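Hi support team,

I'm filing this because I wasn't sure whether my run with zinc ion finished correctly. The job status page said complete, but I'd like someone to confirm that the output block is well-formed before I use it downstream. Pasting the exact inputs I used:
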Amino acid sequence: MSGRTYRVTGINLKGIPLGEADRIVTILTRERGLIRAVAKGSRKQPSKLGGRMEPFVVNDLLIVQGRWSAQTETSQRLQRIVQAETLQTFPRLSRSLAHLTAAQYLAEVALLLALPDQAQEELFVVLVEHLERIERAASERAVLPLLTHGLYHLLALAGFAPQVNACYFCQGELVDSVFFSPQWGGLVCDPCRVAQRPGPIAWVSASALCALGSLPNSTLPLPEDSLPLAAWLEAERLLRRVLEHHTDREIRSAELLASCYAVPTANGQGSPAFPEGHSKEWASA
Amino acid sequence: MYTRPLARLIEELQRLPGIGSKTAQRLALHLINRPAGEIEALAKALLEAKQTVRHCSICFNWSAEDPCEICRSPQRDPSLWCVVADVKDLMAMERTREFKGLYHVLGGLISPMNGIGVDQLHIRELVARVAREKPQELIFAISPSVEGEVTMHVVKDYLKPVAPTLRMTRLAFGLPMGSELEYADEVTLARALEARQEL
Ligand SMILES: [Zn+2]
Ligand SMILES: [Zn+2]
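And here is everything the job wrote out:
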């Protein structure tokens, strides 16, 4: 396979096995957005690609685009990684289930929002920055606010950031009962909810309102543990609804999020630290 | 175009992992050239394996008998267990002929983005088994990937309350035998450094 080569810097988001010893890696690059390429021999030992093809490794890559005959099936038209030099790794993401879940969650969001073969420098930079923050989180508890913040920033980059500081309709201050509409992009005051009837809507707790309001800042101004975990889980769920509304896809890692904050007990059965049920709050206005 | 039954065979072969359309065609044409007896034996072997092979109810190894050959063997040391992600890893350990204990197969690694958490793996079964049989040591023979590391942490956290004195170890990881230092990737080299040993 001889063909044109190019150089990119990218972070591995996903790998799937191919044949006996290879894998196909999905990489978010600075220069070309999302690419998929074959890492030959990377599941074999010894391999010069090996560890560099693990998820969450940032590499300088040399990639060769194959030349294909017209009959080659699209699925076989894969480009190949010929060289990789590692710039950054995130080894401490493996220190807890919460750290890994949050990192894979943001990777999934980036996979949904990234465009193939288009420069997306900002998406790359924002994702790496939030992965660094999650990696530095000292406790599992501190991971959840950082994940929610990262999700908000990725939504903002894609132009989907919901209104989190005032009513979407009247720009008015939020007092008493406050609601959230994923479809209308954010918070809705009670009078506007009655007047506008904006479809499915959720009631927002006072502490979740506080969590949401802090998200547009570049760093979280609150000490990460000043709000209850339930507030951050609620904020995360509301933002996830916005993402699902725009992309029509689900984040699989989110299913494990609640279980990350479960405490193993003597009988080995984890019990959630707080009750899950907020699903009934979604009502059609 | 292939005749209908041959096209169907190619289609079925193509579903197998690592087999593309070219390989599937080659295999199908090869099979069709073999004597009928040989093909019957292959078909019988496939069916018999599918009908008789089950997970061992103790260790989750594949076996036609339950418990499996390893769990039943009196030559095995019941105080030492090896925890692996997959039956393929169990087989790799067996090929060393160095390990004489029992196994526990988790059935994969934790991977939130693939929907695999504690409940999708045989972790709770391991906890119950440890509480019941009280081994002295568990060796984790799990690939040192991000998902492998997290899986080990989680299993350890689940086991601690039921077996506070259980010794838990992991395979040393480092440079593959026969490799040259200058060609080792940074990730592997960093892990080898972390797991350095006294000379
Ligand atoms: Zn309003
Ligand atoms: Zn067994």
